[in-house]
Design brief:
Residues 57-354 form the Dynamin-type G domain. With 778 residues, this protein is mainly α. It has 26 helices and nine strands.
Length: 778
């Protein structure tokens, strides 16, 4: 049946209505999608600000611009934004990182900028572009006169504009390559500071690194050299070759342009984002109304950027003699780079949304728990509870000290342990009068990082090994002659006294430095127990955080006790060393009598052989101060035969008598330092020195164990408790700094309340964005 005009009109009208409904649905869907996108960017911008302000453990995805001062870094950032806001030119123009939270808003015909102040990051003050430029210039001038000259704290600016992309860009200070030499030390220091700042920013795994290179040969990796130290595979790096318009005229052959546009893998390896570099040009000239301005508005600046892009493509096609492919065109121009970064960042945003919500919930729980703990601390700020906390801390501290001395593995050795080399560096070495040290490799456990009782035992073992290996210092003939002196009743020589004088002087000079070195080393080991104990207390939740005055008092009392105990123990050891080197007791000093007797027997046999082999009359005397003569000695030889009648029945041995006379002649009556006398003195000195050394080793180790180590166990608790109770009786408010603590806790409470509210609001924002993203495809 043929339809009438009315029926046809009705069907057409229904079709138009259906199309209008579909279009309305699409517009509504696009509007919802755009609304979700805006909320997504707002949420991430606030997340980035929260991470900067409260140092939370999550980072919002952002584009980090890295380049040298002359790479056109700030100019490229302005081209990406679509308007000019900062100083561009030679020298250092950025001394603080500038974070730009850009959001596309078609309703903003002029850039709407808000500066987040350092004093209160929770608010953003709307400012004009000249005001923001003045603020950045003032910050640069302030830091230029500052000793650090650069600051890691970011200047955060939020921008809404119809030409803005949806991007978060962090513009970092330009890297510097200073000239060598002493004259450029200031610039070299600035270069190190900038590189350290940029490297710290690149450590954030969520940041996309925009690496700028101003070179026509990809073999020159000026900026990539630093970037690849953080991102070796360039897996989160976009490489951009700037100032393309100045490089195109430098190529004389089409093959050079091909290599530049498609660098071989050998020169630009890795898995960089986008697959290959981008190439950009930014027209020179500033926006303004003055005579020096080239562009009268940001719209003219934007048109100049587009025109520059088309001119670059035309120049490249002319050089190559062919048209650029679609893939090659997608890498040339600021607009292509901007679209790529916007899509890449948006994908990162959407991928991170499901992961951000659990992190926010975790931080919110942590913030709530901290707030609850602070409220509990504020309620505990009364006299009785503070005293209880102080006494509990005292007991816990002593428990940790005892545990460290007995041995434990709770404290990490890599953080608190010391190898023998480190211990010698900070605690001193055992060095004798010869200046030589025992190689640390000869000591057991020398390479192990020890602390506590294990370190004390190793130090004492090294002391025994070093002192036990000490030999008697060399003895000169002058020392022997000077030690003989003159007796008060005769002018003969007493070589036993001479040996004692030399031995005790050598022993005192040799062993006294070791005593001071041992005290200093063991005091260093004992003082190291304090920070390790504090670490263990913090780990077990027994640390008194916020009570700095009380903790300093405990530290002072402990260090004073350690120093006074070491000094008292060293004085006891010094008294023992003085008594041992002041009076020689043969039963104590002459430990190895058998060895000495064997030596003297062999010496006597050698002397007898020497006397028999030398003819009489050949020996000559050397008078060194005695007034005896031959006849006096002959008379003295005959006196025992008449003055001792009890010995008449004993047969006389002329050989023995001759040996006795010769021995007396060489040791008592004559000051001629014969080899026999010198050997006797050497033997006696070595024996006495050896006896003193053995006694010094045993007594010193015993005294340090009894009077240095043991007081930590049996005297320190009472001393600390006495000092604690004395402090409680003096001024409890001063000891625990209650007024300051109450103020700081209140301040911290307010900060945590603000952080909790912002975390709660952010969590709701991301949950809403996640629900919208699940319903719409952005």
């Amino acid at each position: 049946m043929k339809k009438g005009p009315t029926a046809e009109w009705g069907e057409g009208r229904r079709s138009e209505v259906a199309e209008e409904d579909q279009e309305d649905e699409r517009e509504e869907e696009d509007g919802s999608s755009l609304s979700a996108s805006w909320k997504l960017y707002e949420a991430y911008n606030e997340l980035h600000g929260l991470a900067q302000e409260f140092e939370t453990p999550f980072d919002a995805p952002a584009v980090l611009v890295v380049g040298h001062q002359t790479d056109g870094k700030s100019a490229l950032v302005e081209a990406l934004m679509g308007f000019q806001f900062n100083h561009v030119g030679g020298g250092t123009k950025t001394r603080r990182p500038i974070t730009l939270h850009m959001k596309y808003n078609p309703a903003c015909v002029v850039p709407v900028c808000r500066l987040v102040p350092d004093a209160d990051p929770s608010v953003a003050n709307r400012m004009s572009l000249p005001e923001i430029q003045a603020y950045i210039e003032a910050e640069n001038m302030r830091l230029e006169s500052d000793p650090c000259q650069f600051s890691e704290k970011e200047i955060i600016i939020r921008v809404e504009y119809k030409n803005c992309p949806n991007l978060t860009i962090i513009d970092t200070p330009g890297l510097v390559i200073p000239a060598p030499g002493r004259r450029n030390r200031t610039l070299q220091g600035q270069a190190r500071a900038v590189e350290a700042l940029v490297r710290a920013k690149m450590q954030h795994k969520e940041f996309i690194i925009l690496c700028l290179e101003d070179c026509s040969d990809w073999s020159n990796a000026t900026t990539r050299r630093i970037v690849m130290q953080i991102d070796p595979e360039l897996s989160r790096t976009v490489v951009v070759s700037t100032k393309l318009d100045t490089k195109i005229p430098q190529f004389s052959r089409a093959a050079d342009v091909e290599v530049f546009l498609r660098p071989p893998a050998c020169t630009l390896d890795g898995f960089l984002l986008g697959g290959s570099p981008f190439f950009t040009s930014v027209p020179s000239g500033r926006v303004g109304s003055g005579n020096e301005a080239v562009y009268r508005s940001n719209e003219e600046f934007k048109k100049a950027i587009c025109l520059r892009e088309m001119e670059d493509i035309a120049s490249l096609e002319e050089k190559l003699g062919r048209e650029l492919s679609k893939e090659e065109r997608s890498r040339i121009g600021v607009s292509r780079l901007r679209s790529f970064l916007e899509e890449l960042l948006q994908k990162r945003y959407m991928d991170s949304v499901p992961l951000i919500i659990p992190l926010l919930e975790k931080e919110l729980r942590s913030s709530t728990r901290k707030l609850r703990d602070i409220n509990q601390e504020i309620s505990n700020l009364d006299e009785t509870k503070l005293k209880e906390k102080g006494r509990a801390f005292h007991d816990s501290f002593l428990t940790k000290l005892s545990l460290l001395l007995k041995g434990t593995v709770v404290a990490p050795p890599d953080k608190f342990g010391e190898s023998l080399l480190d211990e010698r560096t900070t605690g001193g070495t055992f060095t004798g009068t010869d200046g030589l040290q025992l190689p640390h490799k000869m000591m057991p456990n020398a390479g192990m990082r020890l602390y506590g009782g294990a370190q004390y035992h190793r130090a004492m073992a090294e002391f025994r090994l070093v002192v036990g290996a000490v030999k008697c210092p060399p003895i000169t003939r002058e020392e022997i002659v000077n030690a003989c002196g003159v007796e008060d009743i005769h002018d003969g020589t007493n070589y036993s006294r001479t040996a004692c004088v030399i031995a005790v002087a050598k022993a005192r000079d040799t062993f006294e430095p070791f005593l001071h070195q041992l005290g200093f080393r063991l005091l260093h080991i004992l003082k190291r127990l304090l920070p390790i104990s504090m670490y263990l207390l913090q780990k077990d939740g027994e640390y008194l955080s916020g009570h700095e005055v009380f903790l300093r008092r405990v530290e002072t009392a402990f260090n004073s006790f350690a120093e006074s105990t070491e000094r008292a123990c060293r004085d006891k050891c010094m008294e023992d060393l003085v008594s041992t080197t002041r009076y020689v007791t043969w039963s104590l000093h002459n430990k190895n009598r058998a060895g000495l007797r064997q030596f003297l027997d062999s010496f006597a046999g050698a002397e007898q052989f020497s006397a028999n082999s030398v003819p009489s009359g050949v020996q000559q005397e050397s008078y060194l101060g005695s007034n005896d003569n031959k006849s006096d000695r002959l008379k003295a030889d005959s006196k025992p035969n008449h003055s001792a009648p009890g010995y008449d029945s004993i047969p006389c041995n002329p050989t023995a008598e001759t040996r006795l006379v010769d021995l007396l002649d060489s040791t008592l009556w004559n000051r001629r330092l014969a080899p026999s006398s010198e050997r006797i003195v050497y033997a006696l000195v070595h024996q006495i020195f050896h006896g003193i050394k053995e006694h010094f080793l045993v007594s010193t180790e015993l005294k340090f164990n009894c009077f240095f180590l043991m007081p930590v166990v049996d005297k320190l608790p009472a001393l600390l408790r006495e000092d604690l109770e004395l402090a409680f009786g003096d001024d409890l408010d001063h000891i625990f700094d209650i007024t300051q603590l109450r103020h700081s806790l209140g301040q911290r409470k307010r900060e945590l309340e603000i952080e909790s509210k912002r975390l709660q609001r952010l969590k709701e924002k991301f949950r809403e964005v996640n629900e919208q993203l699940s319903s719409y495809c952005i």
